[in-house]
Amino acid sequence: MESNYNIEQIKANFPHRMTTIVHFHQVDSFKILHNIQYLYIFEAARLEFLRSLGLVNNLDDLINKFPVMTVHHSIDYFSPAYFNDILEVYTKIKEIGTSSIKFENVSISKDKILAAATTVYVYINPNSGESQPIPKEIKDLLSKS
């Protein structure tokens, strides 16, 4: 993300928003949200996004309806978050391949970007663990979001 960003424009480019708070157990010795916590926060936001599309309503759906494995994460950190800060976490699909889905997340608090991430899921056969093409109906649903 560039240093001259427009927060409202960024928010408008993401179809899904989740709000969360920084809990005590998430802060480190510097009293800021520990960097590893963003993996959990962004994963929760992606699951909420998928839930809003009706793809994941329970754990069985991750095997039967939407079997994916995470194959890549990259996160850039820009500003710290502190205990009790309210975070707005935005999610969108950046790209859909034959068997992969690339998500983008951004976390914002007090009109500052805290962190931005890219995560890639691969659609798999739950029995073999091998990648397989994303079914057309799921691709179509994701493409509309």
Please provide a brief summary of the model.
The protein is α+β, with helices and mostly antiparallel strands and 145 residues long. It has 4 helices and 5 strands; from the N terminus they run αβααββββα.
Word description of this protein:
The chain has 145 residues and is α+β, with helices and mostly antiparallel strands. The protein has one domain (7-144): Thiol Ester Dehydrase, Chain A, CATH 3.10.129. It is built from four helices and five strands. A five-stranded antiparallel sheet has the order 1-3-4-5-2. The longest helix has 16 residues, at 37-52. The relative contact order is 0.22.
What layout of secondary structure does this protein have?
Blueprint: H1 7-12, E1 16-21, H2 37-52, H3 61-64, E2 68-77, E3 86-96, E4 100-109, E5 112-123, H4 136-144
Antiparallel strand pairs: 1-3, 2-5, 3-4, 4-5
Average pLDDT confidence is: 94
- Structural class estimated from helices and strands: alpha+beta
Radius of gyration: 16 Å
Q: What is the name of the CATH architecture?
A: Roll
Helical content band: 10-25%
Looking at how many chains there are and whether they match, the oligomeric state comes to single chain
Shape: globular
Order of strands in the sheet with the most strands? 1-3-4-5-2
CATH homologous superfamily annotation? Hotdog Thioesterase
What is the beta-strand fraction?
25-35%
